[in-house]
Amino acid sequence: NKNIQNDRKYIKNTNVRVGLPAVCFVWQIAMVVLFGVFIRYDEESDTHWVEFRRENNITSDIENDFYFRYPSFQDVHVMIFVGFGFLMTFLKRYSYGGVGFNFLIAAFGLQWALLMQGWFHSLNPETGKITIGVESLINADFCCAGSLIAFGALLGKVSPVQTLVVALFGVTLFAVEEYIILDLLHCRDAGGSMVIHCFGGYYGLAISWVLYRPNLHLSKRFHGAVYHSDLFAMIGTLYLWMYWPSFNSAITDHGDGQHRTAINTYLALASSVLTTVAISSMSKKGGKLDMVHIQNATLAGGVAMGTAAEFMIQPYGALIVGFCVGIISTFGYLFVTPFLEKYLKLQDTCGVHNLHAVPGMLGGFIGAITAAAATEAVYGAEGLRNTFDFEGEFENRTPGTQGGFQAAGTCVSIAFGLVGGVCVGFILRFPIWADPGDDNCFDDEVYWELPEDEEIVPPVLEYNNHMIHKHQEISESNFSVDQS
Amino acid sequence: NKNIQNDRKYIKNTNVRVGLPAVCFVWQIAMVVLFGVFIRYDEESDTHWVEFRRENNITSDIENDFYFRYPSFQDVHVMIFVGFGFLMTFLKRYSYGGVGFNFLIAAFGLQWALLMQGWFHSLNPETGKITIGVESLINADFCCAGSLIAFGALLGKVSPVQTLVVALFGVTLFAVEEYIILDLLHCRDAGGSMVIHCFGGYYGLAISWVLYRPNLHLSKRFHGAVYHSDLFAMIGTLYLWMYWPSFNSAITDHGDGQHRTAINTYLALASSVLTTVAISSMSKKGGKLDMVHIQNATLAGGVAMGTAAEFMIQPYGALIVGFCVGIISTFGYLFVTPFLEKYLKLQDTCGVHNLHAVPGMLGGFIGAITAAAATEAVYGAEGLRNTFDFEGEFENRTPGTQGGFQAAGTCVSIAFGLVGGVCVGFILRFPIWADPGDDNCFDDEVYWELPEDEEIVPPVLEYNNHMIHKHQEISESNFSVDQS
Amino acid sequence: NKNIQNDRKYIKNTNVRVGLPAVCFVWQIAMVVLFGVFIRYDEESDTHWVEFRRENNITSDIENDFYFRYPSFQDVHVMIFVGFGFLMTFLKRYSYGGVGFNFLIAAFGLQWALLMQGWFHSLNPETGKITIGVESLINADFCCAGSLIAFGALLGKVSPVQTLVVALFGVTLFAVEEYIILDLLHCRDAGGSMVIHCFGGYYGLAISWVLYRPNLHLSKRFHGAVYHSDLFAMIGTLYLWMYWPSFNSAITDHGDGQHRTAINTYLALASSVLTTVAISSMSKKGGKLDMVHIQNATLAGGVAMGTAAEFMIQPYGALIVGFCVGIISTFGYLFVTPFLEKYLKLQDTCGVHNLHAVPGMLGGFIGAITAAAATEAVYGAEGLRNTFDFEGEFENRTPGTQGGFQAAGTCVSIAFGLVGGVCVGFILRFPIWADPGDDNCFDDEVYWELPEDEEIVPPVLEYNNHMIHKHQEISESNFSVDQS
């Protein structure tokens, strides 16, 4: 049938039957071996904890770090798998790919993250072992977030094998830039405005730029939402929005650190919602709201507070951050994404530029300014030292200097994202990855067994359908319609 | 095209392009200013916590209130945004409005709630500042819940600007009645049967009564569910149901208080499910279950335990409460809602009368009875004092007196709901709010950019559709069908 | 109309209008009475806690068990109601039954579980009372899980009354086998590989085997997914996957016990995802992924770690477990389920054989091996004693002996599942339960009031539909199509 053949001529070979299992198996076996060599429980998750407790005069099991961080860990875990996953179900026929590949990337990446972050941060030089606890799990989830953000820019245009390559290099680059920013530059970035969002956003954009598809319009029929797919995406949005205070506070200091971070993030997010609604309504005929804005720009407040939330930015400061970044993000969806696509040949499926790259970058600079403005009068001498960790070799660093380093850290994350992304992009252009053709992007058909999508009809309607069909046949034969 | 014009004749001007952004911006700017003037971190979220800890001999960071309440806070947060939000997606074409306006109201209301509740409860007379911590965030979420309940009665019949007005006055009224009930009358109401559900329910009903639409039947085509919209609503139901123990226990006393409240709520909810299923099945031909009952009346046990759950009502007492209120709520959906609509001209979209107003009122009285029946034999002398907070000026209050005040508190909440609702209803009748016409209620089209709702069809079907269309054109021209 | 009558001839009497309410009411009243006689608050949820604290030198309210376990309890609660519930929404027209009956079974079962488990484990011989706290609630949820797993094998083929019978006997059998395995044999099984998954799986399979329907193919039109139903099921999958670390660690020892269990489960689950994807992709033309595998086999790692996760299996050990069991589970879906159906006449709707029965059994044996291999060198003397609870009459048990008992425990759970299931199956074959006919399985129509499932169309399309209809009438009359 000619018509169908025409439709199919742009399709590349998308068979992943060898590649995908091979990568998964090789990778998982490598993980088993490397975990066997390197990874052990830390003193709080080892059966020797009872002795450790006694030796360190810890009075109660409740002071195990598990009880400080596990609830936040679970919230972060939900954000990674349900939040990011369902946020990417908005396309009418790529919901399986959105939530399913997100699942695959994260499960793949978190194992590699435990190793990479372990080597950089917690390798015991004597034993040669990395010890892990609940904070390691949170950091592994964070590390995957960078690659999931990048996936947002590529959604629908890459094969599952490519997503794993994105994750493999993404996690590796993340661990390096994180080491430079947090350890060498001694920046504070608990919620990851810089190391997660800014890096992840630019990483994804750079890859997408290299993978530009001039004929993507051939997949236009799949490039949009249907009523219920947008509602599934709202599940993702809301879980990200609700749990963002946990995301930012998950690894901040015990006590006031976690407490204050949660409050600031909560407020910034609330403020983002109002300005997003305002700009979205202003931009459309009749003041109608656009689901794309509500799903995404409302979250910008959380991204932009990733660095500064643990500082004494004050509640009104958090509101101001959310206010501004909600506006900026919505404007991004309205004007910048189309501009990027038209003039910079950059196709950004989920608009990660507006939700992660720019708010993350702004978050880094907001953090720099807030840090530079810190004073003993506000923080207290001890509070200042604790908050910025002015200890050891950094004992004499001033808030002003800290601010400079924070700003430098933001630039490092952008550089890593862009340069790393361009390199990974070129790797992904090799014609071996079974990516979809230009007319088959955003289509789950390519990588998923799809159910027959006919709704069950009650017998009466079935009967009617039958009759309509019969009637068509008759009338068609009568008029001898040309079918070419 | 005449046909279409006819369809449109009932439509009012629903343009919110000026009003909605204006309200959002003005409001958010006001919040920034007021937060700047009034709101600061409390001692547990401030960097001075380390000094506070030392001064107060607090041995560990784990005794920061954050660790007592943050997991419950996050559960409450999920209830507010996903629970209430998705519960209101059950209509076939108002799911965006349900979940989206819920999101907007709550993000708008919680900021105002922090201020209002702060002025009444935690304004430091010396510094003129309100200090906030995790308990304030929980209370702010609670405060929004009242307005979200009211929104349930109005769902589909108001504009987004009107929802914000409902929230503005709702939060204000809430803070006042809460102050009267909890502080002046010294009632206990941790889970808010009185202050949240009873108030919110009657507030919404009163508004809806004033806004009665005699021609609402013109929107009948939108007034119902489709298969998947009811499934989305079940997400809301289940999250409300599962997290209700956290809702009721979030701000009760540390230790046994939170523990007992969670147990009682858990039991009452389980009991509600069984009686709801029983009545629902009895009421329909063939014993078929009705999703409206399952989605709503199963939650009545949580509402009705809002006051008494922290008392020693005993596990069997909790089961009895759930038992009765599940029956009452389901009967409400079967008989009272239709009665209210027909004879009292009260249109209650989500049936908040049956889920919040009545079970909340009953919960208030159950609390009164349980309090009046409290004895030292059961509670212990110290336990009785702690549970009812018989301290300071209330040192000599007896359980019997307390019961009387609890009952009085319930009446106060009803009065505030009804009177406040009528006033707000009249404000909402001004013809400036861009509310939908009678034939366009329950329709997302009015305030949302909707996606083209055509499912993607594989090439073969697309081809068939093409042919059907072609054939139609031909036959239409042949028979020259009249199109008027 | 003949056509319709033919369709209906296999339908049995499915009227539950008397049976369902009767069971619910009788049951719920029995629960009220039994709770009244037996159940009270334990010392941590009673108002006397303040005295208990003082007497036992507990320094802070934070050491109330509530704060150790409540966050995990809520995660388990979500798994039971949303996880299991939505996992069973995958069928195109049985989503209400999946999530709704799951809700009913669990709410019904948890009350009975509190009593049954209480009688076996915490009946105070002096007072004759059972005292409950947060750990009891977790155990009650666990106890229901066994029956919910069994429901997975029966999904779509039983009436709601039958599901309650399954739960009634399921909970009873569970309490007995749990008592034998945990108390008499002194096995460790915190996450319930044996007592929950292995038992529940074989219980469901045995019932399903007895209830074999030779003409189930008559319901073939309902036996499959549609695009969005599979996406709803992914909500269930992800919540189970994310919260499984909480499931396994909810009742393990305070401190390192909970901490280590969460880490091991997290790793095993991640590993399962990769091997599931690999096998799923290898098995299909073009390497396409199958949603059934992704929804189910990815969870096998959590099931298989239910026993061993609290032991020092080491991180790489957890990865190996996930690796193997992901493969085994996916192979089960590919080959074993069709084999069972064809040759053993065993219809297993959700494939609980592959997700629960086999991984649970393997988990039991993995636990046995890990226990037998435990040494003081790895655990420390004190750690070994704490982990395996070698105290009291079991003081002198060696790890090797413990391993033997663990293996024996697994066999006990299989035996209870199979024998109990066969008995319950025969009870369910009495013709009094109003189960659906062979041509009406997997159809919500039978037990639910369903909404009219027509999407609302905007006026223009409505107009077009109108015209199409008109045109049909005309052409039909012209060609006088035979309608018989």
From TrEMBL, chains A, B, C:
<comment type="subunit">
    <text>Homotrimer.</text>
</comment>
<feature type="transmembrane region" description="Helical">
    <location>
        <begin position="20"/>
        <end position="41"/>
    </location>
</feature>
<dbReference type="InterPro" id="IPR029020">
    <property type="entry name" value="Ammonium/urea_transptr"/>
</dbReference>
<keyword id="KW-0924">Ammonia transport</keyword>
<feature type="domain" description="Ammonium transporter AmtB-like">
    <location>
        <begin position="66"/>
        <end position="429"/>
    </location>
</feature>
<protein>
    <submittedName>
        <fullName>Ammonium transporter Rh type C 2-like</fullName>
    </submittedName>
</protein>
<keyword id="KW-0325">Glycoprotein</keyword>
<feature type="transmembrane region" description="Helical">
    <location>
        <begin position="163"/>
        <end position="182"/>
    </location>
</feature>
<feature type="transmembrane region" description="Helical">
    <location>
        <begin position="76"/>
        <end position="94"/>
    </location>
</feature>
<feature type="transmembrane region" description="Helical">
    <location>
        <begin position="132"/>
        <end position="156"/>
    </location>
</feature>
<feature type="transmembrane region" description="Helical">
    <location>
        <begin position="361"/>
        <end position="381"/>
    </location>
</feature>
<feature type="transmembrane region" description="Helical">
    <location>
        <begin position="319"/>
        <end position="340"/>
    </location>
</feature>
<dbReference type="GO" id="GO:0008519">
    <property type="term" value="F:ammonium channel activity"/>
</dbReference>
<keyword id="KW-0813">Transport</keyword>
<feature type="transmembrane region" description="Helical">
    <location>
        <begin position="263"/>
        <end position="282"/>
    </location>
</feature>
<feature type="transmembrane region" description="Helical">
    <location>
        <begin position="194"/>
        <end position="212"/>
    </location>
</feature>
<feature type="transmembrane region" description="Helical">
    <location>
        <begin position="224"/>
        <end position="243"/>
    </location>
</feature>
<keyword id="KW-0472">Membrane</keyword>
<keyword id="KW-1003">Cell membrane</keyword>
<dbReference type="Pfam" id="PF00909">
    <property type="entry name" value="Ammonium_transp"/>
</dbReference>
<feature type="transmembrane region" description="Helical">
    <location>
        <begin position="101"/>
        <end position="120"/>
    </location>
</feature>
<feature type="transmembrane region" description="Helical">
    <location>
        <begin position="405"/>
        <end position="428"/>
    </location>
</feature>
<comment type="similarity">
    <text>Belongs to the ammonium transporter (TC 2.A.49) family. Rh subfamily.</text>
</comment>
<dbReference type="GO" id="GO:0097272">
    <property type="term" value="P:ammonium homeostasis"/>
</dbReference>
<comment type="function">
    <text>Functions as an ammonia transporter. May play a role in the elimination of ammonia in the gill.</text>
</comment>
<dbReference type="InterPro" id="IPR024041">
    <property type="entry name" value="NH4_transpt_AmtB-like_dom"/>
</dbReference>
<keyword id="KW-0812">Transmembrane</keyword>
<dbReference type="InterPro" id="IPR002229">
    <property type="entry name" value="RhesusRHD"/>
</dbReference>
<keyword id="KW-1133">Transmembrane helix</keyword>
<dbReference type="GO" id="GO:0005886">
    <property type="term" value="C:plasma membrane"/>
</dbReference>
